[in-house]
Amino acid sequence: MREIFDAELTQLGEDLVAMAGRVHTAIQSAGQALLTADLALAESVIADDIAIDALNRDLDERCVMLLARQQPVATDLRVIISSLRIASSLERMGDLARHVAQTARRRYPDPAVVEPVRAIFETMDQAAVRVADRLVRLLTTRDLSIADSLERDDDLLDEAHAASFAAQLDGTWTGTPQQIVDVTLLARYYERFGDHGVSIAQRIRYLVTGEWVEDGPA
Amino acid sequence: MREIFDAELTQLGEDLVAMAGRVHTAIQSAGQALLTADLALAESVIADDIAIDALNRDLDERCVMLLARQQPVATDLRVIISSLRIASSLERMGDLARHVAQTARRRYPDPAVVEPVRAIFETMDQAAVRVADRLVRLLTTRDLSIADSLERDDDLLDEAHAASFAAQLDGTWTGTPQQIVDVTLLARYYERFGDHGVSIAQRIRYLVTGEWVEDGPA
């Protein structure tokens, strides 16, 4: 029995890595679609989000089934509950990537982000892709130094988020109301990538150390 | 043993109702602070969100403890897992109320929403307060007709969300970039109140009927 259970827990871990890999692709493609006004790529992110949602549902059902069948305690219980929550955060990151792609699609063939904020979104795109990449590696290796780096990327996202507002409000902005709406929402989506990434990193830190470090206000 | 467990499950249900009650107050006060530029009320929402976060953590810990100690199956397991998720959605609604209050505070003594979108935010405020009120009653009574009404309020929030964009983009808008940023984010917060409300209603529906009705894309 224990052997089967261990195999199921290992599978759960592998599925989270696979899900994080898909979210990484989604964020990378959404950013590229946004910055290069690539309609086909935007469409692919939107279509692929259905698969991420399905992975979440599947993982979710298996966690509940494991709880019912194995009645785990201590570490096993902690692993399953954490998996439930990590999957839910990854699913939400997939939704955010879809929102970015939908914005790119709505503005096509125009770019949704233009100067003077384009450079800010290049920074956010790179930081968000790094967050997703670090999540894959953190889920694979449980190396907590990766969690530290991820938290620094989240700080960068917060700074870029603030900079995107400053750029619109410094009196030199000449964009249209539509561009302000787009930039405001897009910057929020990118900021939320970081928040979800940090939340997942905290859960993995908890699994590794057994100590819970409090979430800051979101 | 079963008696103690039943008492604990009942307590869990009562705590969710209490938490929903606090979220209801937070949404109501945040909306009033926003529409009347009431600084003291905004401050109170921001301060009280700490209590909602604490309730969520407490409820969360008790759910995990119940899973470990009682090793529940079937309906009991479903109730505990659903409680975990409902608490997490309620906590997020509290965060959103805090974001609304923080926007009101940042603009004080000016109002954050002005014509021509003020009427739209009055509609959103009323719908969001109704959503929270219905959640309290749905959690108390498990009467699924309340879930239906809640879903209609969510539709209203989606429509108002779309209307807030239309008002800014119809070419007659004379607000500042700051006002566009505020309106864009505030409308998104209100739209998310509805999404979280529907997600909780779906979980309660599942608890009552045993049938899962799929979430639409968020």
Secondary-structure map:
The structure is a homodimer of 218-residue chains.
Chain A: H1 2-36, H2 39-70, H3 74-107, H4 118-141, H5 144-169, H6 177-209
Helix pairs in contact in A: 1-2, 1-3, 1-4, 2-3, 3-6, 4-5, 4-6, 5-6
What can you tell me about this protein's structure?
The structure is a homodimer of 218-residue chains. Chain A has 218 residues and is mostly helical. Chain A is 84% helix and 0% strand. The first copy, chain A, has six helices and no strands. Chain A has helices at residues 2-36, 39-70, 74-107, 118-141, 144-169, 177-209. In chain A, helix 2 packs antiparallel against helix 3 (74-107) and helix 4 runs antiparallel to helix 5. The longest helix of chain A has 35 residues, at 2-36. The termini of chain A are far apart.
User: Biggest β-sheet of chain A: count, sense, barrel?
Assistant: none
Element-level helix/strand string of chain A? HHHHHH
* E-strand count of chain A: 0
User: Helix amount of chain A, in percent?
Assistant: over 70%
Radius of gyration of chain A: 19 Å
Task: Please give a handful of descriptors for the protein shown.
homodimer, 218 residues, mainly alpha, 6 helices
Summarize the structure.
With 218 residues, chain A is mainly alpha-helical.
